């Protein structure tokens, strides 16, 4: 079971890197690619606005902090995997030239399901996450007072 999770995580991490370059297959490849992006930002080779540069810099700080002292993806715990994947997705969304990159950005979060003590990692696009949040907000804003007809009475 754990082996399958690593394979799945590795696949998602490969998808999470910027689309303009070949997908790195290992943690050292990810770090090397992020160093290359950092160098391109410093030299002005990447056409990003100041806000995008700031966001990429903040997320790269997370990538470098999470990967420091690690030699492979197997060295990362579940929380570090989530942080790394989310940071790579944000970087990808900023470096990518797609207009809808932010909505298509994959995000993961840890959540405890109702009625369970187990914490699971849930992943989806930013758009799916926003829609789920809005749906939950709509559900919670519905009146909870029974209004006729059908206040629990059976016909």
List the helices and strands and how they pair.
Layout: H1 2-16, H2 27-43, H3 50-67, H4 78-95, H5 101-104, E1 106-112, E2 119-125, H6 126-141
Antiparallel strand pairs: 1-2
Helix pairs in contact: 1-4, 2-3, 3-4
Characteristic terms for this protein:
155 residues; mainly alpha; two-stranded antiparallel sheet; 6 helices; 57% helix; elongated
Polypeptide structure, described:
This protein is mainly alpha-helical. The chain has six helices and two strands. The chain has helices at 2-16, 27-43, 50-67, 78-95, 101-104, 126-141; strands at residues 106-112, 119-125. A two-stranded antiparallel sheet has the order 1-2. The protein starts with a helix and ends in a 14-residue tail after the last helix. Residues 1-23 have low confidence and may be disordered.
Rg, rounded, reads 20 Å
Main pleated-sheet profile? 2 strands, antiparallel
| Helix and strand sequence | HHHHHEEH
Q: Beta-sheet strand percentage?
A: 5-15%
Number of DSSP strand runs: 2
Briefly say what this structure is.
The chain has helices spanning 2-16, 27-43, 50-67, 78-95, 101-104, 126-141; strands at residues 106-112, 119-125.
């Amino acid at each position: 079971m754990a082996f399958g999770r690593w394979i799945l995580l590795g696949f998602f991490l490969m998808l999470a890197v910027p689309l303009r370059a070949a997908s790195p297959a290992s943690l050292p490849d990810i770090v090397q690619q992020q160093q290359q992006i950092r160098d391109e930002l410093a030299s002005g080779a990447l056409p990003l606005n100041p806000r995008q540069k700031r966001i990429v810099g903040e997320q790269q700080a997370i990538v470098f902090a999470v990967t420091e002292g690690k030699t492979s993806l197997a060295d990362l715990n579940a929380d570090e995997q989530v942080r790394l994947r989310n940071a790579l997705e944000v970087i990808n969304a900023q470096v990518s030239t797609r207009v809808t990159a932010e909505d298509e950005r994959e995000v993961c979060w840890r959540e405890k399901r109702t009625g369970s003590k187990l914490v699971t990692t849930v992943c989806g696009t930013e758009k799916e996450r926003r829609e789920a949040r809005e749906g939950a907000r709509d559900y919670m804003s519905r009146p909870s007072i029974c209004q006729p007809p059908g206040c629990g009475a059976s016909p």
